[in-house]
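User:
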Amino acid sequence: MKRPIYILLFSLIFSCKQFSTSEGFVISGNIDGVYADYIYLNYNAKIDSVLVINNSFEFKGNVKTPTQGWINLRKPSSVSFMYLENSNINIHIKAYKEKEINSLNIEKIEGSKTALIQEDYKIFYQKNQSKSNFKKLLFNKLDSIFTQNPKHPFSGTVLGEIALLEPIFNFKEVSILLQKLDTATFNSDIKEMLNQGLNNLEKFGVGKPFPSIDLPNQNNENFSINDFKGKITLVDFWASWCRPCRDNHPKLINLYKEFKKLNFEILSVSIDTDSNQWINAIEKDTLSWTNVLDKEKNLYNTLGIFAVPSSYLVDKNGVILGKNLSLNNIKTILQK
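Assistant: Predicted structure:
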């Protein structure tokens, strides 16, 4: 499951030492919407809370380095992520009810240098992601951000997510970018994401063979990627309890109908632990292609998958073409 990327319109790049002061942070917020209860700030295993009065609230604290935290309303509640840094930060929040859940979005952040970096990156991404040379543009953009902000956790998080969840770059390219960062300043989660991402790229990145592990279908017949040689195959990892996975099935059904005659196949791999729930979900979602169960997560763990949904596109020879590709990217490959 991917997090949204944030950004901005004017120049940014600040070195990490510019973010850190001894004065602490003050977060002044106002809320658009009807809410007069407590609001919560979570960071560094701390939970702070204040009562919203007249649609306003204020948090005070101190962080050694820019730190990612999140804000939520009284549970059950959605969360909105933001970076804390020792400065005066103003945020504007929209609060609303959604299916009995207190939901919120951070609509605007002022006074945060990290927010400027995020905003700049987001604008760059949206402006360039459809260009044919996007990979080169992105590499150069990240090189610039990392060079100017080698200790900032946002730099480590962006590279970690790209390596682990959306591998646009190969092992060598990620390694070059990683050399720009001072990883000693990152927390254990960022370090683990970077290490796991690099490990996955080295073993199962683009151009690497997809692992051949036999798994049973509903009739206890074993299948592996070798059974799909000669066809481009989308290996889709999912689970019956995963709502985004289930919501994606109608799109996969349409993709399958459109390209099945062009030597395209789908192999769905469930990580359900309850076989009955798995089978019922297959029938309810009308998945007509091959479905196998990775109950012990053998294939899932071999690939170092972080979460479902997750997918790999594999060529006719069992070689990986891409991971977590968009449907449009898959269609482009199939139409060649």
